[in-house]
Amino acid sequence: MNILLIPGLWLDGDSWGDVIPPLEAAGHTVHPMTLPGMESVASDRSAIGLRDHVNAVIERVDAIGAPVVLVGHSGGGAIIHAVVDARPESVTRAIYVDSQPIGHGGLINDELPVEGGEIPLPDWSVFEEPDLVDLTDELREHFRQIAIPSPKGVAFDKQVLSDPRRYDVPITVICCEFHPDQLQGWIDAGYADELKAITTVETVYLPTGHWPQFTKPAELAQTILAALAT
């Protein structure tokens, strides 16, 4: 199976480095993606928006020309959901890593601090404690060294969706900083209507912080493999 790995804010395709080997060892072809403007700190990302990232993944899906599985971490979940909307016939499963589908008109996060038209990795104090579980001082330093500012538009632009066939694509939500019971509570309270509309939803608990590709990469890889087997 072709597996596309879509990183969240501040990260490029290399951030999946410790997750990839177990997936390849299981016989899958893995495509970790570095999205437009995220090639380096020096890249020009001033005109890049959410749809540019979505279109880059759509282009890769079309180039592969075979069924794919999409894995999106954090803000990457919004991206893969838009790709499912654009190519529902090409996606066999979408996997949301500490994330969930964002519906039409939603956005990733318009409260993050912006500097010079882009969003650098903020101070750790900006994040909540559940985000930072298992993120040791060493991992925090590593993260900060590899972090690339994200385009403002990616986080602030509104999601655009149009094809109801997206609801027929099975999904798995890997819950890390929140428990599946909390997710169900959000659905019941009307805060996750897009998720509620999807026909087949599997939830899995991988207890750690918001960046399991750093804190529990082996466990994350095994969780992805288990999702592919469902």
From TrEMBL:
Residue intervals of the AB hydrolase-1 domain: 3-222
Keyword Lipoprotein attached: no
Keyword Electron transport: no
Signal sequence segment: none
One of the record's GO molecular function terms: hydrolase activity
SUPFAM superfamilies listed in its UniProt record: alpha/beta-Hydrolases
PANTHER family named in the record: AB HYDROLASE-1 DOMAIN-CONTAINING PROTEIN-RELATED, ESTERASE_LIPASE_THIOESTERASE DOMAIN-CONTAINING PROTEIN
Protein name: Alpha/beta hydrolase
Organism in which the protein naturally occurs: Glaciihabitans arcticus
Top-level taxonomy: Bacteria, Bacillati, Actinomycetota, Actinomycetes, Micrococcales
